């Protein structure tokens, strides 16, 4: 919009300035012609006045400025002339002066360097005979002068066009500065969160109304988000105790003598209770993450953390590690342990025989990679696995009891500490890449 408005304004200004330049050139031409005509006419009137009223011989050399004077007879022959036209032919030929009492027009005789405005008046009696015509010629501006004038006007016009273009671009840009600020703030809400508000410009008008409307909408969204988060937190928190009590009673029941026929049913109920407890715990953790609840931050050695999490794995899938020492980050160790545990659980679930865990530095980042040798994840579904409660068919088949929240929690934790979690390309299986700022470059979230 800014460029379009500037372009339209510049084109309109160019058309107007073109018309003004054309008008100025016409006015300049008319002014110079009128000025030359006036000088020629005054010179002839002075000579004729001296002849008729004073009865004395006029001085043909007394022309005003560049005006030259010449006298021709009835046949167009030169009978007298000023010093600058000595030996020159007539300014106007006999076909222009014969049978005329007055001559007033533009001529371009070959012996003059430029065109001139010639004014002539016939006198009945004169020292040069009867019926002579007194001619006076005043040079008109030549092509060089007119081209210089045109070039000057064009330069001034271009300067005005540049000034108009800059002023339009600058002014419209200043008008849209608040809009750009609102847009940039809205685009950054993933960082600032719903608690952030767009700046309201001091000037009134539609842009101020827009900013106020956006802030009012954000207030409503934040209220709805707070109510939703409070509900999830309260519900999850209130469900923990009865679920824990139910799980304990079912475990005690399973400790009874093994000949009871109801024990398989109680075992199935215990498994469902544990799955329900996992869902509640995940929802409670997501509620804390969404609210950006503060958690103690300390320097965590990723190699040591990854080694401990791998050693806790049950026998079965083979884990291979490549752990670079001294790779530290600033984060909450419990949350980071949960991230690694979720990634290892996911890899162990889908691996055929082997899981590879790597910890290394990459510039200012610490990189943790978890690679399995399973069937992998199609590229078009790689972002879907990070959605809450999203589970691919293979994942449902391999782990029917999963909650579908583990990878969502892992990505949320990574982003809280200024990092990222994504699925990268690999020859075989799924390759999860966790990036976090190294402790030397990280800041407390």
Automatic annotation (TrEMBL):
It is an enzyme of class 2 (transferase). The keyword Aminoacyl-tRNA synthetase does not apply. Keywords: Kinase, Membrane, Phosphoprotein, Transferase, Transmembrane, Transmembrane helix, Two-component regulatory system. CDD domains: HATPase, HisKA. Its EC number is 2.7.13.3. It catalyses: ATP + protein L-histidine = ADP + protein N-phospho-L-histidine. SUPFAM superfamilies: ATPase domain of HSP90 chaperone/DNA topoisomerase II/histidine kinase, Homodimeric domain of signal transducing histidine kinase. This is histidine kinase. It comes from Actinomadura livida.
